[in-house]
Every structure is written in structure tokens, then in C-alpha cells.
Amino acid sequence: MTSAKRTAAVGAYFEAVAATRASGGATAERSYYPALENLLNAIGDTLDPKVRCVTELRDVGGGTPTWASTAPASRGRAGIDRCRSAAWSR
What total of structural domains would you count in the chain? Predict the structure, then answer.
């Protein structure tokens, strides 16, 4: 990813987060998923092979994952992660 593309993707992410927050109706976590998904997909588009981010997957026995990243060569395998708000604590 070129520096200009990376800067644009991060800038678009922060603009989307600010707009979501300014709406006054955002949740602490899930309202911001679209902005993060767009950022991760912008970065994933520059990888070889390309990687796509999918949010809110179904539970396949280990709980409901927040994110999965997949690539065509992965044959259905996915990298799974959870996303938490900055205010989340254990």
C-alpha cells in the first residue's frame, strides 16, 4: 500500500468514526464496525492474495467472532479476532 493510499484509508477511517460519534446515536462498539471494516478491506485489497474482512459471523461452536479475514487461497479458513471498545474491561 503506498503511503498516499494508506494515509487516505486511515483518514477516511477517522472521518467515519467522527461522523458516527457526532451522530449522537452510536453504541460504544458496534456502530464503529463499518469504519473499521472499510479500513481493513482497503489494506486487504493491497495484499497478495487479497484479503477480505467479514464482520459478525455465525457461531460455529466457539462463540460468535467479531471479525474474520479470508483470502481466496485460504479454502474457507479464516483468521478470527474480537473487537472491543476502548472502554471495555475484563
Answer: 1
